[in-house]
Design brief:
- The protein has about 400 residues and is an alpha+beta fold.
- Helix content is about 40%, strand content about 20%.
- α5 packs antiparallel against α6 and α6 packs across α8.
- The longest helix has about 35 residues.
Amino acid sequence: MQAIKSVKQNYQPSAEVLNLLEQFRLMVNNCIRIGLEEHITSLKSLSLKTYHKLEDYDVPSYYKLCAISRASGILASRRKSLRRGVATKSPYTVKQQLTSCYGFKIDGDALRIPLGHGKFFGIPLNKHTQEVLSDPALRVHSFTLTASQMSICVSKEVQMMECNKTAGVDRNLRNITYGNGKCIQQYNLSKAVKIAKRTKKIVASFRRNDLRIRKRIASKYGRRRKNRIKYLLHRATKSIVESAVENGEAIVLEDIRGIRKLYRKGNGQGCKYRSAMNSWSFGEVQRQIEYKAKWSGVPIIRLTKGETMGTSTACPICGERLPNGRNRMLLCPSCGMRADRDVVAVINLSQRGRLRFDRSLPTAVKEAKGGATEVVMGNPLTTEVILGADAPKSGLHRRRLDGTGVSEIF
């Protein structure tokens, strides 16, 4: 299996590089315009229609091919949005950029980019980029330049890990819960909510009359907020994947697409609550887990909406529906199990993922492992609901279930 990821770093562009970025942007926009006018739906047709019209641009020919490919991807994304019924405007690239898979070379500790007419521009690689590229198993595919940042796309062949267990991931606004019936880890993300609220308050305090200056400053604080929250999510998702590798677990992800519809104006919710829920980065959490798991060879099981439904309101022992009150602690009226709703959710996710995982195994593997066990009422995959939790990092809560309920250990 081929795993792909990118490594990014900042750099200082020259005037020639900035001119090349602008030329590439203009070529992409020209190709998009022709594609919209001619109603082109394939890369081949777009290439035949646009390549000879890019002769006026004084850039290497392979940059023209990359610009056509970039425009084709943008047009394909627009058609996909139209099929979904999403209203879209005519696409147009604003930021300067350059993407290419031809002509570049990594020479020692620098990336050499051709500018045309026999000229090259060298970008010094920082320590982190050099460490990533030092792996002989990696293959460098392409690079992307903006006015301040460089990204190098790399790939490697990964052997899928053999797993005998599954563990669910329950994403919430203030925490991420990961585990199964034997081990639960909870990652506190309350700091991300505070960062979002503080940034919104700072941006709202701007009183400058010039709208352009306000937008520039707001963009600066928005990037700062995005980077700080992404770092918190990176720490949590990295720990999740490392735990999956250490314990030999397949990661089970829930399907919560469309959840934004619950937090629209007119649903009887306050504007502050809707603002907090709509700033929830649940998609970024899934993206990071998926690419990190693929890079480490950890299998990912994606449940459908039907399989995800009721994971936080069904008892993982007897299958009885749990009363969903305002309190996060749920008590089963049938078997007496008492646990936090996030803990209940990850146990149910791991059980339903295990059922999917066992169904996908070949018959010989099932017989070697003693056969597959289905999750039915009264027949859970695990004999214990929660034994304990391993929380090696700060920000994790250890949870343990005893006869009276869940107790938190800090």
